[in-house]
Amino acid sequence: KTNPTLPEPRNIHKIMIGLELDSSNAKKLLESAGYDFNAHKVSDMIVKYCIENEIYGIDVVDEYLYEFGQSTLFSEQ
Q1: How far apart are CA 1 and CA 18, in angstroms?
Q2: Residue 2 has pLDDT above 70, yes or no
């Protein structure tokens, strides 16, 4: 269950991509909100992949998410 006083993980993912954080800083940001990348969530693994490979274009990130049947971060499906 998420903490109502903290942003949802998807909003943190948006921030990480928007700020073009590297893997280390992205992980620190997630941990500061009490989260981590979940290896069992496809969307988490896609965002992690994008950050690790310095893919920060919002259209590209959304396309990866869409291709794997996940909710996009920046555009409506």
Answers
A1: 25
A2: no
Give the Å distances, CA to CA, from 36 to 43, 47, 59, 66: 12, 12, 24, 22
CA atoms within 13 A on the CB side of 75: 11
Which whole number is the average pLDDT over 35-49?
A: 97
Please enumerate, as own/partner, the contacts of 7-12 that have beta carbons within 8 Å and a separation of 24 or more: 7/33, 9/33, 9/35, 9/44, 10/43, 10/71, 10/73
Scanning the chain, the segments in alpha helix (DSSP H) are: 9-18, 23-32, 42-52, 58-67
Give buried/exposed letters for 60-74 (b at 16+ CB in 10 A, else e): ebbebbeeeebebbe
